[in-house]
Specification:
It is built from 23 helices and 7 strands. By secondary structure, the protein is mainly alpha-helical. Helix 6 crosses helix 8, helix 19 (316-344) runs antiparallel to helix 22 and helix 21 (385-415) packs antiparallel against helix 22.
Length: 454
């Protein structure tokens, strides 16, 4: 086969030839990102046929290599019985992630076909938000009661070696008869003591743990402070319900950054892949673009009110976008600081006046300096000090507005239970555009005789 043959073309030929062994061997040579890319480029019918060739175990490995949203689309197209067989082979965290991306009817249909214990475990995970400890934890861990001896643990591990081989075993957790977390041991703690030694004699008591409701930010802070291989997760009754791995937290943080970036870019409703249905992709983009039309009309209406002034002093058209853009940049800096402090718990939604006072000082200083710079440029260009006063004064005033508003917007939106990452930037942009246009044109209207039609 030619070296220039793309991975999806080669994979497609192997699928068409119905060579399941060669298909899985070829997929094993691809990186996870290239696997996802190759599968996404396959025609829909070939993509569906791929999973009929693979065993549930092999199909689950492929599912784990591709984004959850893309995996959910693939699994939803399968018969429920086939999908259930594949889902049962996934790790608990991947299973919950993929099911969580599906619509309610599809996920319930698959759960109905799964093994009862597996389905019950999946439902337990689905009740949690995806970015809290309960949504990120895994259920593949080893726990024993404190009366067990070292020999009992070794016998259990030997008897269940096939099942446990896929576990992330770095710690052993010690629980009481009700499942409450009481202690923890590391792997090497089993190697040297006498075989009759009980876990109660060896365990580290009162180990650190996190609540199953702990937020992603709290988990991120935990692993920054404690360099553990994992942290036990407990419910309200202190029962051990799972383990969160640092890799899962890092992945979730990256997903959150990606989601925020997509939201700020106008992609509403979650991730978008070009393999998704055309109308779904179009609708997600239009939901923001249609609102943006209204916001831009509001900003443009200010110019319409002062069109006579703008016609008399056409030079102002050069400075209008500069004033709005520079002020917008200043405001977005304040938004970023507030977003960061909210995520770290350094500021609360009710502390509007404190934020206002802090940002107003920055806004005054930066506004005066930026206004002086732009005003000086305007004066040197046209030789009219009044033009410098108009544009410099407008930039100073608009910078003060944008910085104070940018600092307070995330807090106000948080109090209204809206997503600050989604709403802050576009709302700030509209307000700074409107105010910037207003300040420039109203100042110019007041000093129109001094500007002399430049």
């Amino acid at each position: 086969m030619s070296d220039k043959t793309s991975s999806w073309e080669r994979l497609g030929k192997l699928i068409t030839a119905e060579s399941s062994e060669e298909v899985i061997n070829y997929i094993d040579t691809l990186s996870p990102s290239e696997t996802a890319r190759a599968i996404s480029r396959l025609p829909e019918e070939v993509r569906r046929h791929l999973f009929t060739l693979l065993s549930p175990e092999d199909a689950a490995e492929v599912i784990e290599d591709i984004p959850e949203a893309q995996a959910a689309d693939l699994v939803e197209d399968m018969p429920s019985e086939q999908a259930a067989a594949i889902m049962e082979e996934l790790d608990s965290d991947h299973l919950a992630d993929v099911l969580g991306e599906m619509d309610e009817d599809s996920s319930q249909a698959i759960l109905a076909q799964m093994d009862e214990d597996e389905a019950q475990e999946a439902r337990k995970f689905l009740k949690y938000a995806p970015d809290c400890a309960g949504g990120l934890m895994i259920s593949e861990f080893l726990s024993y009661t404190s009366d067990k001896a070292i020999q009992d643990i070794l016998d259990d591990m030997q008897a269940n070696r096939e099942e446990y081989s896929g576990y992330h075993v770095q710690y052993f957790y010690v629980v009481d008869g009700k499942g409450k977390l009481g202690g923890i041991l590391q792997m090497h703690d089993l190697l040297f003591p006498a075989r009759k030694t009980t876990l109660a004699q060896l365990m580290i008591r009162a180990p650190l743990s996190v609540s199953d409701k702990a937020s992603l930010s709290e988990l991120e802070e935990f692993f920054e402070e404690h360099h553990f291989f994992g942290v036990p997760v407990v419910d309200d009754e202190q029962r051990l319900v799972g383990v969160v791995l640092p890799g899962a937290v890092e992945e979730a943080v990256n997903k959150r950054k990606t989601k925020n970036f997509l939201n700020l870019s106008g992609i509403i409703g979650g991730e978008e892949f070009r393999t998704m249905p055309l109308l779904l992709r179009s609708g997600r983009r239009l939901s923001w673009l249609s609102v943006n039309i209204v916001l831009n009309i509001m900003a443009a209406s200010v110019i319409a009110l002062y069109q006579d002034t703008l016609a008399a002093v056409i030079t102002l058209a050069v400075f209008l976008p500069m004033v709005s853009d520079m002020s917008g940049c200043s405001g977005n800096q304040a938004v970023a600081v507030s977003m960061r402090e909210l995520s770290l718990g350094l500021v609360r939604p009710g502390e509007l006046l404190w934020v206002l006072a802090k940002e107003a000082k920055v806004g005054i200083i930066n506004g005066l300096i930026l206004g002086l710079l732009l005003g000086s440029i305007a004066y040197l260009w046209k030789g009219n000090p009044w033009l410098g006063l108009v544009v410099g004064g407008a930039l100073a005033a608009n910078t003060l507005v944008s910085v104070t508003l940018g600092g307070m917007l995330p807090l106000m939106l948080k109090r209204l239970k809206l997503d600050p990452a989604l709403v802050s930037s576009p709302l700030l942009t509209t307000v700074t555009d409107m105010c910037g246009f207003f300040f420039v044109l109203s100042f110019a209207a007041a000093l129109l005789p001094k500007l002399g039609g430049i």
